[in-house]
Design brief:
The complex is a heterodimer of chains A (299) and B (296).
Chain A lengths: L1 H4 L12 H36 L5 H5 L15 H32 L6 H15 L2 H16 L3 H25 L3 H8 L5 H29 L3 H4 L20 H9 L4 H36 L1
Chain B lengths: L37 E12 L2 E12 L3 E5 L6 H7 L10 E9 L2 E2 L7 H7 E4 L10 H11 L5 H14 L3 H4 L12 H13 L5 E5 L7 H14 L4 E5 L3 H7 L2 E10 L4 E11 H6 L4 H7 L5
Parallel strand pairs in B: 3-8, 3-9, 6-7, 7-8
Antiparallel strand pairs in B: 1-2, 1-4, 4-5, 9-10
The chains are: A mainly alpha (299), B alpha/beta (296).
Chain lengths: 299, 296
């Protein structure tokens, strides 16, 4: 009623073409479809591992020893592998994260402008290392370390550290490059040296992203099997000494047990798989919390 | 105004004899430094970014306890010149300064001169407020801590004094531990000025410190500059000509010189003198055109 009395508008504000609307609908449908397809493997993997592993995993499973396969049906536990994974991953982290962070600082703070040959070489090598298959890392450590000093958690940690290094370098450098130059200039203008600018302004600003990037690299390394195959031997007994003697780890145990014909071993593999997913999940959540906390302080 | 035959280098030879008196003009509202102590002497400096010559053959002197304004159109090199005065250009790959720049008779670009030592005496405030993502307290204490002051009582004292000098104390005294990122633009800029003053520099360089601020915040910063100028020498780059007339004792007008043959452009210093003379009785036709708003 009001519309009939109001004057005719002098402009037309309606959608100019219906083809635009159609395009919008088609693209939206395609995106939703892609999302659903992506969800299938993700959800399927999670549901399978959780449903098969949830009945097996327990405090006792995480600490009990791995029974020999001659006792079919005996699930036992994954204690030695949990110990091994925690030790080897921690050792690899201690080696790779400081080294990678220092490399990233060099690349981003000292080797800027593309003129620094050493920085260009390091950046290029990090990119190449990212593309090296993990089994090659294992073979490399096998050839230069394990052949001379025997199987040990240390060798496995070397291999995992090689794998983590390029990830840590690249993710840390990315975070350092996000620190605005205005902050660096502000610090330089107060008479700070480059080292001090880096330590007191650049690193605190980027630390949240650096830590979460490092945790993602740790999660990735904790789940790697191939680098461990030639370096730790994958025994079934607990070896608390990470520096010498054969040891074992969760991914390697999954590989060994899942290929076994015995029910007990297969159940053990599912339990180990779920354990590994939980470890990765905890690390990811930790990364998220740390990032969120530091971003809040920084805002 | 007829064009001047030799436009480039105009030093401040009008210093001792202020602008010619003209009928109907307000009396000079500022006394120029009678002692005329020079803080900076630049003699024929050219500044390059790799092969590009951003500034050509610039000479001027900056006087102690005065506010000197650099004005001019975009791309005329005034910020580049400003940044050469505390060696901030060193941070840009390929930047290089030719010619003689002296700071209290010491060559700024001489052998063995440490840019770090230079910047501890010659502070800088930037166009965009750049507080560190730390607390207000830690922002101010940053510079003194660099200089090795660790004593809590001493730091507290410096923080309070600097924030008071920066006209920010009353607004933040109850939240010194709060993040500086929560401050408004004007407050953040005053924080950055206070942070610069905390190291008690000799000179404060300001690169368009008010261009991101509203008139009220701008006015607060200009008042602040007047208050601190008895203790510091200030050089300010500004796009705002009213600001230059309001705050500065001397003004340097930079312009862009085009070389038609090689199709290159470079910044030159057109005219330098007491602010009143530059704005009311410019000697160069380009200055005249710029300050009256006909160009730029």
């Amino acid at each position: 009623m009001a519309a009939s009395t109001s004057p005719q508008p002098s402009v037309d504000l309606r959608e100019p073409s219906s083809w635009r609307k159609t395009k919008n609908q088609i693209t939206t449908v395609l995106m939703v479809l892609a999302l659903l397809i992506i969800m299938v493997p993700l959800v399927f993997v999670l549901v399978t591992v959780i449903s098969k592993g949830i009945g097996i995993i327990s405090a006792q499973f995480l600490t009990a020893s791995i029974p020999p396969d001659v006792l079919p049906g005996n699930i036992g536990g994954m204690g030695p592998a949990v110990v091994g994974t925690l030790e080897i991953t921690a050792l690899a982290t201690v080696m790779a994260v400081p080294l990678g962070l220092l490399g990233a600082i060099y690349l981003n703070e000292y080797g800027r402008g593309g003129k620094n040959l050493l920085a260009r070489v390091i950046g290029f090598m990090a990119d190449v290392m990212t593309g090296v298959p993990s089994i090659v890392m294992g073979l490399f450590i096998f050839a230069i370390w394990t052949l001379h000093f025997g199987f040990s958690g240390l060798g496995g940690a070397f291999a995992l550290a090689c794998l983590m290094l390029p990830l840590v370098i690249r993710s840390s450098q990315e975070m350092l490059s996000l620190v605005p130059d205005a902050l660096r200039e502000g610090s330089y203008a107060l008479g700070a040296s480059r080292a001090r600018v880096t330590v007191t302004v650049v690193l605190p600003t980027a630390i949240g992203g650096i830590v979460s990037g490092a945790l993602l690299a740790v999660a990735r390394a904790a789940g790697e099997t191939a680098p461990l195959l030639f370096t730790i031997l994958t025994v079934t007994t607990t070896n608390k000494n990470v520096f010498s003697g054969p040891t074992t780890a969760l991914p390697a145990q999954i590989f060994a047990n899942a290929t076994s014909p015995y029910n007990g071993a297969q159940a053990r593999a599912w339990g180990a798989a779920l354990t590994l997913i939980v470890i990765a999940f905890v690390l990811l959540v930790g990364a998220r919390i740390i990032t969120a906390r530091f971003t809040r302080v920084g805002r | 105004m007829e064009p001047q035959p030799e436009p480039n280098v105009v030093t401040d030879r009008h210093t001792e004899a202020p602008a010619r008196p003209q009928a109907g003009l307000a009396p000079p509202r500022q006394e120029l430094s009678p002692t005329g102590t020079h803080v900076f002497d630049a003699n024929g400096i050219s500044i390059y970014y790799s092969a590009f010559r951003a500034v050509t053959d610039v000479s001027f002197s900056i006087h102690e306890n005065e506010i000197t304004a650099f004005i001019g159109p975009s791309g005329c090199g005034k910020t580049t010149v400003l940044r050469s005065l505390n060696r901030m250009n060193d941070l840009i790959a390929g930047a290089r300064v030719e010619g003689d720049v002296r700071y209290r008779d010491a060559p700024l670009y001489g052998p063995g001169v440490s840019p770090i030592a230079v910047r501890r005496r010659i502070g800088m405030v930037f166009q965009k407020p750049n507080p560190f993502p730390k607390s207000i307290y830690d922002n101010i204490a940053y510079g003194p801590r660099i200089n090795g002051i660790r004593n809590k009582g001493k730091l507290d004292e410096i923080v309070e004094r600097s924030l008071q000098q920066g006209a920010l104390w009353d607004e933040v005294k109850n939240r010194l531990k709060a993040s500086a990122m929560g401050l408004s633009g004007g407050q953040a800029q005053r924080l950055c000025i206070a942070r610069t003053l905390a190291v008690e520099p000799d000179v404060v360089l300001m690169d368009e410190p008010c261009s991101a601020l509203d008139p009220i915040a701008t006015s607060a910063i200009e008042d602040l500059m007047h208050e601190i100028k008895s203790r510091y020498t200030i050089v300010i780059v500004t796009h705002n000509m009213q600001q230059a007339t309001r705050v500065s004792d001397r003004t340097a007008f930079f312009s862009v010189l085009r070389n038609e043959e090689s199709d290159t452009r470079t910044g030159v210093l057109v005219e330098y003198g007491p602010t009143q003379q530059i704005f009311e009785d410019p000697h160069d036709s380009r200055t005249q055109a710029y300050v009256t708003g006909r160009v730029g």
